[in-house]
Amino acid sequence: MQHIYDPDFQNKDLAAKTTAAFDKLADAFKTMQWANQKENGFSPLQQKLVFFIAYHGPSENTVSQLVKEFQVTKATISDCIKTLEQRKLLTKVLNHKDNRRFHITLTEKGKEVVAQLTEPATPVYKALETESSEDLKQLYTSLFSILSKLNKENTVALSRSCQDCKAYRSDGINHAFCMELRTQLHPENRRIDCPKHQPK
After folding, report:
1. Does residue 59 form part of some domain?
2. Residue 174: pLDDT over 70
3. Domains in the chain: how many in total?
4. pTM over 0.90
5. Coil vs helix vs strand at 99
């Protein structure tokens, strides 16, 4: 059986070599997240959770939506929220129409902490900044295509991307168009996390 960790296979197959490169990037993200944990005491999931809640609205910050977003169990998300609540960083906001429903939001202390946290992915962002604009456009276009395929297989969660938005129009030949933003979308302008997303 051929394996992406086999250098001989990698060097004969560009898809295998690219997959191995993604694997190295995944390792880099883990290393950066664990380094941040030593610095600020947040687990990788806790870090991603507070950043996500800081920049998304009530409809995305429910337990069920967070489970889908991070592809973990309800128990894992609930434990994570409980820990951050105990640290006075998160609080639950009850739905006035249904007291059984609630969303999660940052406390004032939580907002202060997020403002001081270092984004774990910063080194990757800085490395990408040194690439040419054209190279970045091609890279993002390819990544969007790969993520869309994996999303269809339920391997990754793209809950707010253009690909599954009813405002997105594309004939597969010309540039796509967003009915919500009323603008043409070049390949590099398609979004993987859009605040204006309209579920199909």
Report:
1. yes
2. no
3. 2
4. no
5. strand
